[in-house]
Amino acid sequence: MAVHDDQPLKLAYLSYRSKPTVGGQGIYTRHLTKALADLGHSVEVLSGQPYPVLDERIQLTKLPSLDIFNDHHPGRFPAYWEIKSLADVLEIAQFSTGNFPEPVAFSMRAYQELKGRSHEFDLVHDNQCLGYGVLAINKILPTVVTLHHPITVDRRLEMDAAPSRLKRLAIARWYRFVRMQGRVAQRMPRIVVVSENSIDDIHNDMGVERDRMRLVHVGVDPDLFRPMPEVERIPGRLITTASADVELKGLKFLLEAMAKLRTERDITLTVIGRAKEGGPSEKLIRELDLADHINFVTGVPDERIVELYAESEIAVVPSLYEGFSLPAVEAMATTTPLVATTGGALPEVTGKDGETVLRCEPGNVESLVAALTRGLDDPELRTRIGQAGRERVSTHYTWRQTAVNTVAQYREVLAMRSHQAANEAARKV
Question: Model pTM greater than 0.85?
Answer without folding.
Answer: yes
